[in-house]
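User: Sequence for Four helix bundle protein below. Tokens please.
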Amino acid sequence: MFKDLKVYNSAMDLCVSVYKITDSFPGHELFGLVSQMRRAVVSVSSNIAEGAGRGSYREQIRFYYIARGSLAELETQLEISFRLGYVEYRLHTETRLVYRLLNGLINSTKKMMLVDSA
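Assistant: Structure tokens for Four helix bundle protein:
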């Protein structure tokens, strides 16, 4: 089950962190950067869950790649927020952890797909 995946739980922790830091953003960013960051971070854990629930390895991998793309989007938005002075740190450690775990999940799913097709 996806709730048992370490990558899913790390992505959920990242989601909570992003929601907390964006609470302090200026009001004029509510429908801009705040909204984009929150959508991107929710997309990471959502696509991990959706991928885990899919029937084939190929479909799982597709959703894991979408999650990774959303994570890259979030990293860009965090960098913009840092450069604008909205945050004091980039959440780099948290995003790197999710990247590593997600890449591991992608690679292990690819291996299972190869084994299953042999």
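The chain has four helices and no strands.
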